[in-house]
Amino acid sequence: MAEKPLAVIILAAGQGSRMQSELPKVLHRLAGVPLIGHALAAARSLEPDDVIVVAGHGAAKVEKATAKLEPDARIVLQHEQLGTGHAVRQAMPLLEGFDGKVIVLYGDTPFIGEDTLAALASHGADLVVLGFEAEDPGRYGRLVVTDAGLERIVEYKDADEATRMIALCNSGVMALDAGLLRNLIGKLTNDNAAGEYYLTDLVALARAEGRRADVVTCDEDETLGINTRAELAAAEAAFQARARVSTLENGVTLTDPATVWFSLDTAIGRDAVIGQNVVFGPGVTIESGAEVLPFCHLEGCHISSGATVGPFARLRPGAELGSEVHVGNFVEIKNAVLDEGVKVGHLTYLGDSHIGEHANIGAGTITCNYDGVMKHRTEIGANAFIGSDTMLVAPVRVGERAVTGSGSVITEDIEEGALALGRARQVTKPGLGIRLMQALRAQKEKS
Fold first, then answer.
1. Which of 128, 238, 266, 434 has the fewest CB atoms within 10 Å of its CB?
2. pTM exceeds 0.85
3. Which residues pair with 74 in a beta bridge?
């Protein structure tokens, strides 16, 4: 982390017309979160004093997503998209009086690593550009470096043949002293074919004032930008491949790695076992020694050591599974806490609930938590036994060691140790079944 105060500006104003979408480009999802979420996570790794997001196209949606991902980040609008330099200029009023370093990131560049950002933040030059050695430099801008540091950035269309032979390319990411940025940003001009204000022109302006510019390099993969749906798909594949390798190296068993899909923040402890075709949404943590069986979908949940989930289970946000909990096939859990040793074998929905330790939940149990307007909670005590096909109409409380009969509809609290039966009395009519079926067949033949 840099010794001086640090601010991060994230440029997220572009429309992304090549995505062929009404959704702002930075809100397209990669690894379960919007692209801008990756930039915000990268910024967060530096523990900055300030994070500013420059929004433009779809600003209201970008602001809403940013507030959810990083509540302390501040938003500024770029009403007209007139280039990267113009975008940074919109953020400067929010940095009035700030004396430190500023790093400029891009909301559509998700893979810049923490070590690379730390190198940018700690570099001693007045201005630092992030560069990379490109396997195919193509139409990237080239970084011309001498013994005196970064001399200039040359756009491909303006480069001569000798300059085009340079493999060191410009990523667009930049770090510089806040005072220098404040001084130079107003000197940018749009005297170019596009009529835009380019942030890269700051290098020449800084050099003209006798300030040192330099380059920090990273792997080319870190600088991958997303401009099309195809690039988004390629980025997803790259992220998943890295996540699978990292997970295996951290001591987690993946029985079929290629079929497991991770989110940006998935956290799994060593010696956990993950079956095939498991999908992790955002916000999942799994402790060491837990097991997730095949074909499960998890999001916003926590699974403790020794717990087993699946196959074919769904854990939704707010699901908290204690140690040695068993959640079986075709079980859905949402905003519910299951204490140690709870067993929910199959075909069950538990929502807005707290299940005490070692309770047994029979097949087909449903917590009826929604009345059409409000959500209500169900409380089930420790060692309770809920019979198969029980409907628990919340708000309702089942005491410790209480039992419900199979097929019951429970609408009132059950005291500790009691047996509750809430089903209609069975009535049997001898021979009526045969006569009913005969009548139905006759009616069908007439029609």
1. 434
2. yes
3. 52
